[in-house]
Design the sequence.
């Protein structure tokens, strides 16, 4: 059995797209299990750059089945745009499958997201993610299969009336023209129908047949609705448990959980960030790491690696392996710091606190490691990395108790050092 879950170990943007793309070459099936078009994956192949938000990056391999699972909230317009862009660049998209049970992101979800974030100040991506999950939980959402139901129009019109009341009376917004939205949805549904399937069945069949299945988490552990830095989180479960719910597989089917760890830390949006650097080192990480959001273009906040977070991620996700990304971004630093604990009002904390007021006041306790100060971006074998880089990785492994399997030293597929074949 080879079913591997890939999760972000920090606040998202760890480089999961690149690792997924790398592993997808061997995978028979790649599955997105949560989130929506708030995710942004950049994959570089030869001189081409692909930016995907909803379609799994495995789509770039013609033999890989790519699944958008039931736990994802689907913006159909976005899927159609991505399909068009891929097809125009000669990519075969016939292997895409979309869960019939996935929820639909409606135009009003995006509108409400934008309006509400003005007061909530989470700094959301405005892709309608929170409102779509709210409707799912309150049982007023629509699944893809509902769009093909004869009673859909009536239910949809009733819900749109409620949403228009909310928009007009509470938010002082114009609302939507029901017939126009309905017609747009029907058009999108018709164009996507050939991709719609019972994807849990497909994934379980693949696992039974001994195929290699990769579950691709979006966002990261600290953006998880339960385990993240609430309320500055997304509305889904990016952690490994989310793969079971969001793809319809039992936990006994999962063989490995890989934590993708960026060699330093970044965060987009609001909320506490203990190792954040508001200085020249932070600037250097941002410029060397091109730390600007794929989805929103926002500059990411940057800081040193935080082992308190990694230990937490190892625990919550049950990590079996690490994929360390962007190690080359640290090439020019003479000294590199790792946060090993927090100091809070004179007390040393080794565990990640639940209370954001406490986290906000935590001061990192750092250890310093010598940098390697050389270009590692062309290195192909682990043993050829400079000793200082290997020491840095060994320290990370020791601090979180999980071994590395992959180290990425640049954005291209070829810039990937593999110590352990995960499939
Ligand atoms: P939402 O997912 O759009 O509701 O945004 C909630 C929070 O998650 C905000 O702080 C976003 O910046 C953050 N977020 C959502 N998706 C990503 C991602 O793919 N990478 C990093 N941060 C994200």
Sequence:
């Amino acid at each position: 059995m080879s079913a591997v879950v890939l999760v972000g170990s920090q606040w998202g943007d760890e480089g999961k797209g690149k690792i997924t793309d790398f592993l997808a070459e061997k995978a028979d099936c790649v599955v997105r299990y949560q989130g929506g078009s708030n995710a942004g994956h950049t994959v570089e192949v030869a001189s081409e750059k692909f930016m995907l938000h909803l379609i799994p990056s495995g789509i770039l391999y013609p033999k890989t089945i790519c699944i958008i699972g039931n736990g994802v909230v689907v913006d159909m317009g976005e899927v159609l745009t991505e399909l068009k862009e891929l097809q125009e660049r000669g990519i075969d998209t016939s292997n895409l499958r979309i869960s019939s049970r996935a929820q639909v992101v409606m135009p009003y979800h995006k509108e409400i997201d934008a309006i509400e974030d003005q007061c909530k100040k989470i700094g959301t991506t405005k892709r309608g993610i929170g409102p779509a999950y709210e409707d799912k939980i309150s049982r007023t959402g629509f699944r893809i299969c509902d769009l093909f139901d004869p009673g859909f129009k009536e239910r949809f019109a009733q819900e749109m009336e409620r949403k228009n009341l909310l928009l007009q009376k509470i938010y002082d917004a114009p609302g939507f023209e029901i017939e126009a939205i309905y017609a747009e949805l029907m058009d999108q549904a018709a164009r996507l129908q050939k991709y719609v399937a019972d994807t849990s069945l497909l994934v379980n069949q693949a696992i039974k047949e001994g195929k290699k299945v990769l579950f691709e988490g979006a966002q990261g552990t600290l953006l998880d609705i339960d385990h993240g830095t609430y309320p500055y989180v997304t509305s889904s479960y990016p952690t490994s448990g989310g793969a079971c719910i969001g793809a319809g597989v039992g936990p006994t089917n999962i063989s490995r959980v890989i934590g993708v760890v960026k060699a330093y830390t970044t965060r987009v949006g609001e909320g506490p960030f203990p190792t954040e650097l508001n200085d020249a080192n932070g600037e250097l990480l941002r410029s060397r790491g091109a730390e600007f959001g794929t989805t929103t273009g926002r500059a990411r906040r940057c800081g040193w690696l935080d082992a308190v977070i990694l230990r937490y991620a190892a625990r919550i996700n049950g990590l079996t392996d690490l994929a360390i990304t962007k190690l080359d971004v640290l090439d020019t630093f003479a000294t590199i710091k790792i946060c090993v604990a927090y100091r809070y009002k004179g007390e040393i904390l080794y565990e990640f606190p639940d209370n954001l007021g406490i986290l906000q006041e935590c001061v990192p306790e750092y250890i310093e490691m010598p940098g390697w100060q050389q270009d590692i971006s062309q290195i192909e074998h682990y043993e050829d990395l400079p000793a200082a880089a290997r020491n840095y990785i060994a320290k990370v492994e020791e601090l979180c108790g999980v071994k590395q399997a992959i180290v990425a030293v640049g954005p291209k597929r070829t810039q990937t050092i593999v110590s352990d074949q995960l499939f």
